[in-house]
């Protein structure tokens, strides 16, 4: 069954076959003797279908907030294209001959599948059948513990003492942490975290390395594939050195949003700070100084990273927020205010990162906020967080990623730019003259 879950749905035959079949079905539905009655019926169906798709999407995205925020351009294009095609198929079903009716019936699910595949490919985050179904097929990976857990961190940056051995692997490795991180302190029912080890972590007598605690978006999964690809590229430019990355689940289930807090939705904050952080510090071969710890995230995870980095500067010396939401529950603020905070606006405001920043002290916190230039729904949020961080005394940077949106391009571009800026701070590159 795993072979089916691992099928590539963004570039292989499983993507192109439905696209080509849909194009053929649409051509069959359109091409027939052009009587006045048929032309009017077909044109009307297409127009009404497209309009219904646009209206339905507007209601779902902008009125009901069903997707937790804005959607990309591909969604605005392909949803109405799909509904237009469905409307044309429905009109065709009522007309002979029988074989054309059969094509129309088959075309409806085919159009839906094709639109979904194209929209998913545009985001580029879920690349397999299993990922779309939130079924994890990533293999387990063993923990690489420190050789001497009681030893102090070295005084010198890693780059000053590192000599890549002859057997240095070309690539790092990632997988599901096995056995999983315990949740004894919080009881939070998190899905299995994943860890990425760079090449330098896979050799004999590997050095302690800086660490990144990473969180993905909502809906989503704790998938290390994207950050692993970015850090593999980073390691290739730094003699195999890169941070160890632990990608954790701040949600519990794909569509839940515990808000990165301890609340009636779950003890997500305690899970991260009281379960994950001590486990990483005590179990993995990582440096323990706060300046070697980065909290990072994308979208919902970016909001969470900003919140945690602002609230716990003694733990996290750096924040890397990629396309972040400004505050927890932003897309459903009225519902969150009522359900989680009992209508207490002051209590809700108190857990927003901008509020925490205004009350904090940050003599040595590095904060990097990135967003795709083609991601208008998140640009203003990201700029506001960067301004607040700078105003609070953090060493803050705002980066707009050219030609990137709220999908893979924004994540890869943001992480790449962020780690490039953090390389010296994390001791993985010599200071630039």
From TrEMBL:
PANTHER family for this protein: DIACYLGLYCEROL ACYLTRANSFERASE_MYCOLYLTRANSFERASE AG85A, ENTEROCHELIN ESTERASE-RELATED
Keyword Ribosomal protein: no
Organism in which the protein naturally occurs: Orlajensenia leifsoniae
Keywords: Membrane, Transmembrane, Transmembrane helix
Native organism taxonomy: Bacteria, Bacillati, Actinomycetota, Actinomycetes, Micrococcales
InterPro entries in alphabetical order: AB_hydrolase_fold, Esterase-like, Mycobacterial_A85_antigen
UniProt name for this protein: Esterase
Keyword Cell division tagged: no
A Pfam family the protein falls into: Esterase
